[in-house]
Amino acid sequence: MLSGVPTIRAAEMWRMNTRGAWMSDTASVTSVRSWSSTVWVVLLAVVGMSVASPTNSTAAPSSGWMYTMVAFSNASDRDMDVYQSSDGTHFDVVQKSAYRPSAGHVRDASIFRNTDGLYYVTYTTASGANIGFARSSDRVHWTPIGDHPVPFCCLLLPGTGDGKGFGSSSGWPSLSPFTAKAWAPDWFVEGGRVSVILSMSTGGGFVPYVMHALEPTLRQWSAPVPIIGIGADHIDTTVVKLGGVYHAFTKNETKKVVEHAVAQSLGGPYRFVAPGAWGPYVEGPAVVKLPNGNWRMYLDAYTRGKLLYSDSTDGLRTWSPTTELPGLSGTARHVGVMREPA
């Protein structure tokens, strides 16, 4: 469009001037032909520049991958926004307020694409012992699958006491088996097995649990079991597998920092290793592989309302200082990110 419209107008002008020039003498004809030739040279140069020069769009060139991000926002935790990117840095809006459940919240969403071709999210409903599920074929229109109850957790696990009643100080085991909160569910998919990692509490410290899908439609689940080695007072746990090692990134609720632990199986036992210098008051880690083979962690700097990222170039061992994600920092909160071939 940038080059087509001027070209048509120039051609029309040339024809009008040429028709007028035939009524003049030879010098006028020569002058008009020279003028028109000059116009065409200039127009061709402009066309070449417009084709060769990049646009001002924030969308990155195609990398062969598509990244989908889901998030609630600083404005609303009842609505889930959807974004996409080809490089994991510059995101465009797919649909604002793409999904709103009929009741409750849609916080801490996590997304993946199942073998049936549909996209699935799981999220914090903030309505007691339930986590939410929804699905979509196009990431724009979402259908609720329903809330899944997880009524029991934490009984006699160290550090899960709610600080109420005899023997229930926060440093002691919980004396209650009834889940009060089920937060921050996160997908983990390995081979054909689909799992959800979630944080559960009876009123005291959160404990990371894992449960497994029992059938392909993701409506039936195994009972959640504690992940071994991470312990109580940890929330927002996400796991990625690199080689034969499972890497868990989890927020220590007492210290308000994200920690790093490794294991030889998804359920543990995990041991803690040196974390990145991500700073305090960050949560909701989401980790994804970049087109260049490096790894990226997104972090919610929740006290500042900012969205940060940090990269690893050496297989999750060391990490860059955090940087604000352009375009979405200040808007998107506690994001979930997936990648798939474009």
UniProtKB/TrEMBL annotation:
Which InterPro entries does the record cross-reference, listed alphabetically? Glyco_hydro_beta-prop_sf
The name under which this protein is listed is: Glycosyl hydrolases family 43
SUPFAM superfamilies, A to Z:
Arabinanase/levansucrase/invertase
Where on the tree of life does the source sit, at the highest rank?
Bacteria
